[in-house]
C-alpha cells in the first residue's frame, strides 16, 4: 500500500477519535483552524480580532470569546501559539487570552520569540533564531497567575497542534483528547508550541 494511503487511513481514524471527544449540541462540529507562516501571525491575528469583535456584537456580550463558539481549535507554527492561547484555561473554565490580548502579547514579544541568533549569523550557520529566547517567552505565556504550568489537559476547548517528528520522519499531532486518555501524551503546552515552531532551517530541532 502506498505511504500516502497509509497516512490517510491513519489520520482518518485519528480524526474520528478526536471528533468523538467534542461535545457539540448539533451534528456539526465547529473547527477553527489557524495557519502559520511568517513570524508575526499578523494576517491570522487581524482576522481573529475581527471575528471576535463580530461575535461580541452579534451575541450582545462584550466579554464573549472565540473559544465559546467553536468545538475545536487547531493551528500550526505561529498559528499554533494563537490557538493555544485562545484555548488555555485560566482555571475557571475560561480562556486566559482573548483574540486581541493574544495578538498583542505576540506582537509585544515578537523580537523575543524570534530573536535573531547573531552568533549563528557570524558563523554562517543556518539556525537563524534563538531557541532559548523563545522557550523563555513560551513558559511565561502558558503559566497561570498561581504559577501552574499549563499542559494539554488544561484547555477549555479541544486543541490540535501538528508537528513533524524528525526521528520517525512522520507527522505527529498533539491533542487534548490524547492527553486526557494518557498522561504520557499530556505534554507541557509551551513544549508543544515550541515543537510546532521548530522549523529546521530556523531553529535547532526541539527534543
Automatic annotation (TrEMBL):
Keywords: Hydrolase, Lipid degradation, Lipid metabolism. This is Patatin. GO terms for biological process: lipid catabolic process. Residues 32-207 form the PNPLA domain. It comes from the Eukaryota. The nitrogen atoms of the two glycine residues in the GGXR motif define the oxyanion hole, and stabilize the oxyanion that forms during the nucleophilic attack by the catalytic serine during substrate cleavage. InterPro entries: Acyl_Trfase/lysoPLipase, PNPLA_dom. It comes from Gossypium lobatum. It is an enzyme of class 3 (hydrolase). SUPFAM superfamilies: FabD/lysophospholipase-like. GO terms for molecular function: hydrolase activity. Belongs to the patatin family. Its EC number is 3.1.1.-. Lipolytic acyl hydrolase (LAH). A motif (GXGXXG) lies at residues 36-41.
Amino acid at each position: 500500500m502506498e505511504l500516502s494511503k497509509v497516512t490517510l487511513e491513519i489520520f482518518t481514524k485519528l480524526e474520528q477519535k478526536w471528533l468523538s471527544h467534542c461535545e457539540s449540541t448539533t451534528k456539526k462540529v465547529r473547527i477553527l483552524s489557524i495557519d502559520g507562516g511568517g513570524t508575526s501571525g499578523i494576517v491570522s491575528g487581524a482576522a481573529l480580532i475581527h471575528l471576535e469583535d463580530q461575535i461580541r456584537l452579534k451575541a450582545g456580550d462584550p466579554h464573549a470569546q472565540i473559544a465559546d463558539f467553536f468545538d475545536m481549535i487547531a493551528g500550526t507554527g505561529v498559528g499554533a501559539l494563537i490557538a493555544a492561547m485562545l484555548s488555555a484555561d485560566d482555571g475557571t473554565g475560561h480562556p486566559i487570552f482573548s483574540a486581541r490580548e493574544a495578538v498583542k502579547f505576540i506582537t509585544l514579544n515578537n523580537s523575543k520569540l524570534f530573536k535573531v541568533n547573531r552568533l549563528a549569523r557570524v558563523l554562517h550557520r543556518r539556525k537563524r533564531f534563538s531557541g532559548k529566547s523563545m522557550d523563555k517567552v513560551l513558559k511565561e505565556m502558558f503559566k497561570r497567575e498561581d504559577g501552574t504550568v499549563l499542559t494539554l489537559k488544561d484547555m477549555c476547548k479541544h486543541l490540535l497542534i501538528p508537528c513533524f517528528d524528525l526521528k520517525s520522519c512522520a507527522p505527529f499531532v498533539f491533542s487534548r483528547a490524547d492527553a486526557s486518555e494518557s498522561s504520557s501524551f499530556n505534554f507541557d503546552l509551551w513544549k508543544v508550541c515550541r515543537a510546532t515552531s521548530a522549523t529546521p532551517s530556523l531553529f535547532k530541532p526541539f527534543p
